[in-house]
Each structure stands twice: as structure tokens, then as C-alpha cells.
Specification:
heterodimer, A: 352 residues, alpha+beta, Butyryl-Coa Dehydrogenase, subunit A, domain 1, 2 domains, two-stranded antiparallel ribbon, 9% strand, globular, B: 392 residues, Butyryl-CoA Dehydrogenase, subunit A, domain 2, Butyryl-CoA Dehydrogenase, subunit A, domain 3, 3 domains, 11 helices, binds flavin-adenine dinucleotide
């Protein structure tokens, strides 16, 4: 039992934090809101550092690392509300493609799959992955993605398809958070797009949903931390009645409540990442606890942050809304807190 | 040495678990079979149980062997607690001593104090109560007025004043108390931490029935009670620092092990499954609350392992103990509130011949946000010391 990140993981995390603090300021975020793009110089920097290819197997040019390594970095991405699709590409697509590449049942690994993996590691491929549970919903990051991984249900049999961006038109779908780059692809499943089918796809789809819960959870941790930090700093500076508003207990207790939720959400997300890496028997439950806890923590941080900022927090000019909007969107994606509580409870009942 | 994250217990830890489980299976009284520890009979029955644990070195596993423990680490202690709660073994009548005073005594006590007090604490031959709160000083602990007057002639201190809400004070043999030794000094500086024999002339105990009617705590009156110099824990005038170490144990890792809540949360899911058959509509309305409470217990378990690892790696627990206290107390309430909602109109049934573990547990849980420093005070600590907000 040693429930902590390794020194190496912490060093890498700190290095990424420093880079993002420079390269993903709120001015940069505003630029991304005005002109979103998946392939920015910042994305190239992250690829160079090895962040984008973190979960790509070494044989395909990546680091071959797992979710424990990744969540520490995605938390940093959340802290700056990184607009690029790190969660989708490195958290979801690469592990899924790695599973396909490792699956020897078809002999040689599929050249499309190895090509995409290599592309991700170099920073040349940004991906979007559909939520099999919501097959008709718009997909985060699909607008502007190079690769789409989509699941269809053909009379009860799941199929996994992969499409190069050029191969299908994607209609942008507006989100409150424009950096989410939601898109609705117009596509028809065909033998040319088919990557895998049958029970192994069921298992892959389930694992993808669990990974999404945990990695999105990690992004929510970073967002919550950023909002609480901004709010505490504002509460120290802003004066009313001749004192900093942070000296009023009603304000203190709001911020403290959010901080307690965040403190407890962190080990829950890290532990779930470990459980998924280990393929532990309770990994799916752990993923649900992670997403539910991280969503609640971020939603509470968002509520408190807006309330404590007062009217300035309600303006376009104040940076807060960039973090609020991402949090609200992510809290509902890949299962809300309530969805995951329901999923957990039915799993607990099954075990009885 | 750069260790990767690992949430498996080691083989040695699993072997320790198996040993604890086997011992408890052979010795622990049947669940809820002892009378309440807040009655005279129950107190003695619980004392006897702890003596039995002590005889086989299971009462204080993490203490050094010299004092009756097994010298195991914090993770093994958590494993032992998991087994203890799994066996539904009795509440610990010695908890004020073993979980609160002992860590402080290991940190601040002299060798003579440790040798004198720790073994009988571990065997429950001497049970401790905590004498801090006063009628006019609860949350504002530094405002206590009970005095200790210096007596150079006798080589000690003479205590006078009143303490209140001392848990298990009605039956305890010893008390760890905070008294003002220097009325001129700044509020936090003039305090001293004393170890007091409750049989000393001048100590009067008045039991106070709690919300359930039983004498869970007591008022303590001190009239010229003599306490010798070797019964000061830490330095004279440094009682506040010593007390804050105890408070850290009370709020942090020591007092409430996660197994307590994990077991209760599992029983809550059992109850939910049962009620689903009896009253599905009511059960369905509680589903979200049941899942939430289970998650709260699981989050507490993981946070404890996270914190324990930090401590093992040389870190410390600071104001996070306050966040911890808020979480465990609210988790306990959430679990029991959900259970009562599932039981619906049956929840109020109580009294002779009715076994009402959820209602008893709820009454107990209700005190959680009050004792060990109220949750409002803990929120102040989190805001001021974790987030740097100005003192109000
Ligand atoms: C079951 C139980 C067992 C106990 N056991 C012991 C024991 O063994 N030994 C012992 O010494 N004490 C014990 N206590 C006492 C406990 O420590 C006190 O009750 C606690 O510190 C609160 O003090 P108080 O009851 O005087 O409430 P008060 O301090 O009067 O507080 C009343 C309310 O005002 C709020 N409040 C007060 N000050 C502030 C502030 N600055 N900011 C915000 N809100 C504030 C409190 O949060 C609370 O809600 C026990 C209490 C209970 C319920």
C-alpha cells in the first residue's frame, strides 16, 4: 500500500504546470474562444513534452504510460481550462487504439490503427470519441478532429469504426463553452471504416466509458482548484464594509465547503485511475465514484466562485466564466453525478 | 526510492489481517450483545472486553511492544480497524485515552509518564476522559477559566473550576484537562495540560443524561484538587500546543477510522435491498441518498489511505484534519439519515425490546458536527489556514 504519485510523476506534473501557466493564460483562452483550433503551437509543445503521446504504446512512439500518470497531467490541463482535446485524444482515443493494436486475434495490427497511434504521439492527430451510451449526441472535439472513433449498434452487435476527418463532414454544434468544439458527424458505417465488432468491442466500450469518467473527473479537479484559488484570492482583495470580504464568515464557509469537497474528490479520482490501470474488479465502481465526486466538487466550486465574485463574476470581462462553462459542460458529460450514483447503486445491488 | 502508486495491501499486511480476523472471530462478543457503554454495567462489560484484547495484544496494535502493542504501522492499524468493524465488535470504551491522549503522550510525555500511564490505558484498567470544555468556553476553548494555582511547598498545582460535557466522565478513572496557570498571560499562552486522578480529594462528578437518556457525559467540579508536577503533560504554559496535538488526532487520522463508515454504508445498501422488496416506491426515492452516502464512506476510505501514505513518507497532517472532521461527521449523518428515510414510519420505533441500530446510530451521529470542535469552527480553519482568508 503506497497511495501517492511517484516522485517522477510529480516532477513531470510540475513541469507541465509551468509550461501551461505560460502557454495557456486566460488571454490565450479568450483567443481560443474566438478562433478555436485543435492544432495550436501549445498542442505541439505538449506533444514535444510527451504529454499527448503519454498513453500511446512505446512501440508506436509514445510513452506507454497509464491513467495514473495521465490524471496528474489532465488535472493541470483543467487548472488552465486547456482548450485542446487532450482528454479525447490521450485519455480516450489512444488507450482504445492501443487495445486494438495489442489485440492479436486478427494477426498483424491494423495499419490504420498503428498510423493513428503514431500520429497521436507526434501531435499530428487530434481525436474525438463518441459516447456509445448517447449515439446521436454531438461529440466533444469532433469539430476540427483528425480522427473520429465511433460506435454503432447493428441489431444488438456493437461495432467500432474509425474515420479520418476528410472522410465525413462534421456539422459544428454550438456549446456554451465554444472550446468544447462539439460536432455532429454525418457518416455511414461501412466495411472501410470498421475496426472491430462483437463482444470485445462491448468490453472496449465499457472501459472507454470508465476511462472517460476518470479522466474527465481529473479535468474537473483542476477546474475546481482554479476556481477556488481565484475566489480565495478575490476574497482577500475585495473590500466591503472596510474589510476584505474573505473575513466575513458567510463567505469563508462557502469557500471552505467547496475546498472540503475538492480535498476528498482528489484521492477518489487518483484511486480510480489506479483501479483502471490494474483492471481491478471494482474499477467500474471506482470510476463512477470518481466522476460523481469530481462533478459535485466542480459544480460546488463554480457556484461558490460566482457567488463570492458578485456582479463582476457575471461579466464577460471577468475570466471566471471560462472555467464555469467548462465545468458545467463536463459535469454532465460521460454521465452526470446522478447517473453515476444510479450506476453504482445497481452495481452494489448486483453484488448482493 | 521512487515508489509507484499501489493500493494493494502487501502479503504481510494480508497475513496480519487474517490473524486479526481469526482472533476476533474467536473472541469478539456477538454484535450489540454488550449493554450500552454509557451505563455502569455496560462500562464494566466494555472494560472486560478491552482487557481480553489487551491480553492477546490486540487493543493497541500500533503502539510499541513495550507498552502492550505490536509495533505495527498506520496501514496495519487501518487493516485491524477494518476487521474490527467487520466483526461488529464493541465500541471502544477506552477511546479518549487510546485514540486521543496516547498520540499526544507519545509526542510530549516523559519516559516515566509513558511507563506509568500507557499500559493501564491499553488494558482499560484506567479509562480516561477529556476535561476541556467549560460552561462558558466551548468553541472558544482558549477562553477557559478553570485555574491551576502554583504550590511550591507541595511541589505541584492546585486546581479549581468546572469542566463539562466530559464523555465517559461519569465512570472514568483519569482525566486529561486544560487549566489556566497564568491568568496574566495572553489567552493561549497561560494554559497547562494536566493528568488528573479522578479519585483525588476535591473532584466531584455529576453525570449528565444525553439525548438518549443515558449518562454519556458528565460535569466535573474541581475544588482545590492537588496535582503533582510530574502530572503536567508537556511544559507549563504550553498547554495550548499540547491540546492542539490532541485535537489533531481527534479530527484527523486517529479517532474515526474509515472502516466504521464503510461497514455502515454496506449495511445501508443491505437495508436498501431489503426495503426494495417491502416498499419499492419509498426505496426508489432514497436511491440517490443511499448511493451518495456509500460514496462518502468510500471517499473517506481513500482519503485516509492517501493521508496515511503522506504521513508514512514523512509528511504531516495540518489543517486538513479540519476538512477530515467535517467529512467524517457529515458522512455518518448522511448514512444514518438515509437509513431512517428508508425505514419511514418505522424509524421512530425505540424502547425496551426494540433493536433500533439505525436510530441509535443516528442519535450518535448527530453529535459529530458538534464535538471535536464544531463544523463551523472547522470551516473557519479550512478557510483561514488552507485558503489564506483573513481572520474575521
Ligand atoms: C456528545 C458530545 C461529547 C462531548 N465530549 C466532550 C469531552 O469529552 N470533553 C470535552 O471537553 N468536551 C466535550 N464535548 C463538548 C464539545 O467540545 C463542545 O460542545 C464544542 O466544542 C462546542 O462548544 P459548545 O457546546 O459550548 O457550543 P458553542 O461554542 O456555544 O457553539 C454553539 C454554536 O455556535 C457556533 N459558533 C460558536 N463560535 C463560533 C464561531 N467563532 N464561528 C462560527 N460559529 C460559531 C457553533 O459552531 C455552534 O453551532 C462534547 C460534546 C458532545 C456533543
Amino acid at each position: 500500500m503506497h497511495f501517492a504519485f511517484s516522485d517522477q510523476q510529480l516532477e513531470f506534473r510540475d513541469a507541465v504546470r509551468q509550461v501551461l501557466a505560460k502557454e495557456c493564460t486566460t488571454d490565450d483562452l479568450r483567443a481560443a474562444v474566438d478562433a478555436p483550433s485543435a492544432r495550436t503551437p501549445r498542442w505541439a509543445t505538449l506533444a514535444e513534452l510527451g504529454v499527448v503521446g503519454l498513453t500511446v504504446p512505446e512501440a508506436h512512439g509514445g510513452f506507454g504510460l497509464g491513467l495514473v500518470d495521465l490524471v496528474a497531467l489532465v488535472e493541470e490541463a483543467g487548472r488552465v481550462a486547456l482548450p485542446e482535446p487532450l482528454v479525447e485524444t490521450t485519455g480516450l482515443a489512444a488507450p482504445l487504439l492501443a487495445e486494438l493494436a495489442a489485440d492479436g486475434s486478427d494477426g498483424e495490427a491494423d495499419p490504420r490503427v498503428t498510423g493513428w497511434l503514431g500520429g497521436i504521439a507526434k501531435g499530428g492527430v487530434a481525436a474525438a470519441v463518441g459516447d456509445a451510451g448517447r449515439p446521436t449526441a454531438p461529440i466533444a472535439g469532433a469539430d476540427g478532429a483528425d480522427l473520429l472513433l465511433l460506435v454503432t449498434d447493428v441489431s444488438g452487435r456493437l461495432e467500432l469504426h474509425g474515420l479520418d476527418a476528410g472522410a465525413c463532414p462534421v456539422t459544428p454544434v454550438a456549446s456554451l463553452d465554444p472550446t468544447r468544439r462539439l460536432g455532429a458527424p454525418a457518416w455511414e458505417p461501412s466495411p472501410a471504416t470498421l475496426l472491430a465488432y462483437g463482444p470485445r468491442v462491448d468490453a472496449m466500450v465499457d472501459r472507454t466509458a470508465d476511462r472517460a469518467a476518470v479522466v474527465v473527473g481529473a479535468e474537473l479537479l483542476g477546474l475546481a482548484d482554479a476556481m477556488i484559488t481565484m475566489t480565495a484570492s478575490y476574497a482577500r482583495d475585495r473590500q466591503q464594509f472596510g474589510k476584505p470580504i474573505g473575513s466575513f464568515q458567510a463567505v469563508k464557509h462557502l469557500v471552505a465547503g467547496a475546498q472540503v469537497l475538492l480535498e476528498f474528490a482528489r484521492p477518489v479520482v487518483y484511486g480510480a485511475a489506479w483501479a483502471l490501470d490494474e483492471r481491478a474488479p471494482d474499477a467500474t465502481r471506482a470510476a463512477s465514484v470518481a466522476k460523481a465526486y469530481a462533478s459535485e466538487a466542480a459544480l460546488e466550486a463554480a457556484r461558490v466562485a460566482l457567488q463570492v465574485h458578485g456582479a463582476i463574476g457575471y461579466t464577460w470581462e471577468c475570466d471566471l466564466h471560462l472555467f464555469l462553462k467548462r465545468s458545467w459542460a463536463l459535469a454532465e458529460s460521460w454521465g452526470s453525478a446522478g447517473d453515476h450514483r444510479a450506476r453504482l447503486l445497481s452495481s452494489l445491488l448486483d453484488g448482493r | 526510492m521512487d515508489r509507484p502508486m499501489d493500493l494493494h495491501y502487501s502479503d504481510a499486511q494480508e497475513a496480519f489481517r487474517a490473524e486479526a480476523r481469526a482472533w476476533l472471530a474467536g473472541h469478539a462478543p456477538a454484535p450489540r450483545s454488550l449493554p450500552s457503554l454509557d451505563t455502569a454495567d455496560g462500562f464494566e462489560a466494555h472494560r472486560a472486553w478491552e482487557a481480553e484484547m489487551y491480553a492477546d495484544r490486540w487493543s493497541v496494535v500500533s503502539w510499541p511492544e513495550a507498552f502492550g502493542g505490536r509495533g505495527v504501522g498506520i496501514i496495519e492499524w487501518l487493516v485491524f480497524e477494518e476487521e474490527y468493524w467487520r466483526a461488529q465488535a464493541p465500541l471502544r470504551v477506552s477511546q479518549n485515552g487510546v485514540f486521543l491522549l496516547a498520540p499526544t503522550m507519545f509526542e510530549f510525555g516523559t519516559d516515566a509518564q509513558k511507563a506509568r500511564f500507557l499500559p493501564p490505558m491499553a488494558s482499560a484498567a484506567e479509562i480516561w476522559c477529556q476535561g476541556w470544555s467549560e460552561p462558558d468556553a466551548g468553541s472558544d476553548l482558549a477562553g477557559i477559566r478553570s485555574r491551576a494555582r502554583r504550590s511550591d511547598a507541595e511541589g505541584g498545582w492546585v486546581l479549581s473550576g468546572q469542566k463539562t460535557w466530559a464523555s465517559r466522565g461519569a465512570f472514568a478513572e483519569w482525566c486529561f484537562g486544560l487549566f489556566r496557570t497564568d491568568p496574566e498571560a495572553e489567552r493561549h499562552r497561560g494554559l497547562t495540560y494536566f493528568l488528573i486522578d479522578m479519585a483525588t480529594p476535591g473532584v466531584t462528578v455529576r453525570p449528565i443524561p444525553q439525548i438518549d437518556g443515558e449518562t454519556g457525559f458528565a460535569e466535573l467540579f474541581f475544588e482545590d484538587v492537588f496535582v503533582a508536577d510530574d502530572l503536567v503533560l508537556g511544559q507549563v504554559g504550553h498547554g495550548w500546543n499540547v491540546a492542539m496535538a490532541t485535537a489533531g488526532s481527534e479530527r484527523g487520522l486517529s479517532l474515526r477510522s474509515p472502516a466504521r463508515y464503510s461497514r455502515a454504508a454496506d449495511r445501508l445498501v443491505d437495508l436498501y435491498a431489503d426495503r426494495l422488496a417491502v416498499d419499492p416506491a419509498r426505496a426508489a426515492r432514497s436511491a440517490d441518498a443511499v448511493a451518495r452516502a456509500w460514496m462518502d464512506a468510500e471517499a473517506y476510505r481513500l482519503n485516509t489511505l492517501w493521508t496515511a501514505t503522506r504521513v508514512l513518507d514523512g509528511g504531516s497532517v495540518g489543517p486538513e484534519a479540519s476538512a477530515n472532521k467535517i467529512h467524517w461527521s457529515e458522512t455518518d449523518l448522511a448514512i444514518h439519515r438515509a437509513a431512517l428515510d428508508l425505514l419511514g414510519p418505522e424509524a421512530e420505533l425505540h424502547g425496551d425490546g426494540v433493536d433500533a441500530p439505525w436510530l441509535d446510530g443516528y442519535l450518535f451521529a448527530l453529535a459529530g458536527p458538534i464535538y471535536a470542535g464544531t463544523n463551523e469552527i472547522q470551516r473557519n480553519v479550512v478557510a483561514e489556514r488552507m485558503l489564506g482568508l483573513p481572520r474575521g
